[in-house]
């Protein structure tokens, strides 16, 4: 299968994830040197799910993160654009509601979820800022956002060692354990092309979220970003006007 480039055509990226779905979680644990379960636990704690809440897990893959959230008693809805990933998730996690859907056009109404989270999926979306706006739209006022994503280690020496791992060590491991090494080559490139913590925080604020902050995990290899949808209707109205002005077509000069 052709490897998708960083223009991230949704059909090609989804196809890659379809190919690697059966062994995806096992391969990720290996490639993260055992850190993937720790990152998932940190994300679950940041979301702080509670019984009775309705939580949306975007780019949920096979639902491993969704299952972790669901242990609280919350109702978890999982969304992914890969039919292969969703098929595996439905077999593994019978109590979770799965949808095949585009994160830029979520199939839900306004103000439906108490929390929205996405782990290692935002960088694979064609327009991540549009996806953040959709997450804001479907979230209840006062709701919380948690984004777990690969990031930029602030320490120069560690950053150099990490990039060496991505470019030279990880491809060797992938070649031995993955059924589709080209898919993971794309993932490597997407990690290196992804913006740093401060830039992603700016995107989250621009989507309308307040109280935006991040925390580095594993020396900044991964960062947990948080935000909240304002409860104040005046602030939400201001966000809505700003979005409307961006969508409004400009009149051609006469």
TrEMBL record:
GO biological processes = methylation
- The residues listed in the UniProt record as binding S-adenosyl-L-methionine, with positions renumbered to this chain, are 62, 80, 102-103, 119
Q: Which CDD domains match?
A: AdoMet_MTases (cd02440)
Claim: Secreted is one of the keywords in the record? no
- What pathway or pathways are given for this protein in its record? Quinol/quinone metabolism; menaquinone biosynthesis; menaquinol from 1,4-dihydroxy-2-naphthoate: step 2/2; Cofactor biosynthesis; ubiquinone biosynthesis
What does the record give as the reaction this protein catalyses? a 2-methoxy-6-(all-trans-polyprenyl)benzene-1,4-diol + S-adenosyl-L-methionine = a 5-methoxy-2-methyl-3-(all-trans-polyprenyl)benzene-1,4-diol + S-adenosyl-L-homocysteine + H(+); a 2-demethylmenaquinol + S-adenosyl-L-methionine = a menaquinol + S-adenosyl-L-homocysteine + H(+)
Q: Name one Pfam family in it.
A: Ubie_methyltran
Q: Where are the transmembrane segments?
A: none
Looking at its record, which EC class is this enzyme?
transferase
Which GO molecular function entries does the Swiss-Prot or TrEMBL record give? demethylmenaquinone methyltransferase activity
Task: Tell me which UniProt keywords the record has, alphabetically.
Answer: Menaquinone biosynthesis, Methyltransferase, S-adenosyl-L-methionine, Transferase, Ubiquinone biosynthesis
EC numbers listed for it are: 2.1.1.163, 2.1.1.201
Q: Does the keyword Ion transport apply?
A: no
According to its UniProt entry, the function of this protein is described as: Methyltransferase required for the conversion of demethylmenaquinol (DMKH2) to menaquinol (MKH2) and the conversion of 2-polyprenyl-6-methoxy-1,4-benzoquinol (DDMQH2) to 2-polyprenyl-3-methyl-6-methoxy-1,4-benzoquinol (DMQH2).
What NCBIfam families does the annotation carry? MenG_MenH_UbiE, PRK00216.1-2, PRK00216.1-5
Q: Which family does it belong to?
A: Belongs to the class I-like SAM-binding methyltransferase superfamily. MenG/UbiE family.
Q: What is this protein called?
A: Ubiquinone/menaquinone biosynthesis C-methyltransferase UbiE
Q: What is the lineage of its organism?
A: Bacteria, Pseudomonadati, Pseudomonadota, Gammaproteobacteria, Lysobacterales
């Amino acid at each position: 299968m052709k490897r998708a480039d960083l223009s991230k055509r949704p059909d090609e990226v989804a196809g890659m994830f379809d190919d690697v779905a059966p062994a995806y979680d096992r391969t990720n644990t290996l490639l993260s040197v055992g850190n993937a379960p720790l990152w998932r636990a940190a994300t679950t704690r940041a979301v702080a799910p509670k019984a009775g809440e309705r939580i949306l897990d975007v780019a949920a893959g096979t639902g491993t993160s969704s299952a972790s959230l669901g242990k609280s008693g919350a109702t978890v809805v999982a969304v992914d654009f890969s039919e292969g990933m969703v098929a595996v998730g439905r077999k593994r996690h019978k109590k979770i509601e799965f949808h095949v859907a585009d994160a830029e056009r979520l199939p839900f109404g306004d103000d439906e979820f108490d929390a929205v989270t996405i782990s290692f999926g935002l960088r694979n979306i064609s327009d991540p800022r549009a996806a953040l706006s959709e997450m804001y739209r479907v979230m209840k006022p006062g709701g919380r956002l948690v984004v777990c994503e690969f990031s930029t280690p602030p320490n120069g020496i560690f950053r150099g060692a990490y990039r060496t791992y991505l470019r030279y060590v990880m491809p060797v491991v992938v070649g031995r354990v993955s059924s589709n090494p080209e898919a993971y080559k794309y993932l490597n490139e997407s990690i290196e092309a992804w913006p740093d913590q401060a830039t992603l925080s700016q995107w989250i604020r621009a989507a309308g979220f307040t109280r935006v902050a991040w925390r580095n995990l594993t020396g900044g290899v991964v960062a947990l970003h948080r935000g909240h949808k304002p409860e104040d209707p005046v602030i939400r109205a201001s966000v809505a006007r700003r979005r409307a002005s961006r969508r409004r077509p400009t009149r051609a000069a006469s």
